[in-house]
Design goal:
2 copies of one chain form a homodimer. The first copy, chain A, has about 120 residues and is mainly β. The first copy, chain A, contains 2 helices and 8 strands.
């Protein structure tokens, strides 16, 4: 389960895809430790670049991502993790997917309804 | 169509998904110029980190990616591009998707047959 962490300052790109619908839910980054934790625990764990710490997705919201299947690419520097969402949405803004904005002409338009109230979950 | 290129040294992550099956075909990176070219031309264009140049996917193989829909995430630093593959596969190793290896236990196993002969296309 070797990966190449050298190309992105110790990180690999991790695409999270809903295991049933195939929808891309989020994109995050994993360092070697978060990758090992992901495999060992079965829950997607990232390296937060902004907070500079390990980040078990769902640690505050409870909306964890249970990993069902894992794929890597030809360069072993990116991952696709097919996951089950343990919650209504992965996005901290209340949407099922972080990719809730679609390009329409030259503008980003919100393309779906919120799946939950982020204030009720995150208190902000 | 503003994006945040600041978090990854001038790049955003771009996930390419088959517009019909939803399969993740590849993950690449775009700088501002390749992003603009992608929107203007309708064909996925990346920044090659290894070759340090603009990279129209399919420029040598002919296997271009015709962009059908574009989504961005909450942080506007990642993209999902739903594309039609103009060829049998996007991977330079001959597979439909670059994500042809699946984690089985603790080992990466090739999970599919080649879709084309890379030697015939790339001559190597």
């Amino acid at each position: 389960m070797e990966l190449d962490f050298s190309k992105l300052d110790g990180l690999v790109t991790a695409v999270i895809q809903d295991h049933k619908s195939g929808r891309v839910l989020m994109v995050g980054f994993m360092n070697e430790q978060s990758w090992k934790l992901t495999v060992e625990t079965g829950y997607a764990t990232f390296w937060s670049r902004s907070r500079k710490k390990l980040w078990l997705k769902g640690e505050s919201s409870g909306h964890k991502l249970a990993v069902k299947e894992i794929f890597t690419d030809c360069d072993i520097d990116a991952l696709v993790l097919k996951c089950e969402e343990l919650g209504p949405g992965v996005c901290h803004e209340g949407y099922q997917s972080c990719f809730f904005r679609k390009l329409e002409g030259s503008e980003w338009k919100v393309n779906e309804e919120r799946a939950y109230d982020p204030k009720a979950v995150y208190g902000k």
